[in-house]
Design goal:
Structural class: alpha+beta
Oligomer: single chain
CATH architecture: 2-Layer Sandwich
CATH class: Alpha Beta
Number of domains: 1
Shape: globular
Bound molecules: iron/sulfur cluster
Number of helices: 2
Strand order of the largest sheet: 1-4
C-alpha cells in the first residue's frame, strides 16, 4: 500500500503571511475568499518547501 504524505496547513497556527503561496513551485496553495490558506492535494508534489519556509511551522506534512 502506498502511503500518501501530502501536506496541509494548520489553521490555528497560520498567520496568513503568504510565503508558502509565493514559494510553492507547483501553485498548490489555495487562498479562500476569507483569506484562509490551504493546500490542494491534487497539485501538491510533497516537495516540502512550504514546511521549510513557513515562519511559524503552520505548514506540515501528513504522515498517515
Ligand atoms: S509540499 Fe511543495 S508542492 Fe506541496 S504545497 Fe508545499 S511547497 Fe507546494
Ligand atoms: S507560510 Fe505558514 S504562516 Fe505563512 S501563509 Fe503559509 S502556512 Fe500560513
Amino acid at each position: 500500500m502506498v502511503i500518501m504524505m501530502k501536506h496541509y496547513i494548520d489553521q490555528k497556527i497560520c498567520i496568513r503571511c503568504g510565503t508558502c503561496d509565493v514559494e510553492c513551485p507547483f501553485h498548490a496553495v489555495i487562498i479562500s475568499d476569507v483569506g484562509m490558506f490551504s493546500i490542494d492535494d491534487n497539485k501538491c508534489r510533497d516537495c516540502n518547501i512550504c514546511v521549510d519556509v513557513c515562519p511559524v511551522d503552520a505548514a506540515k506534512k501528513k504522515t498517515e
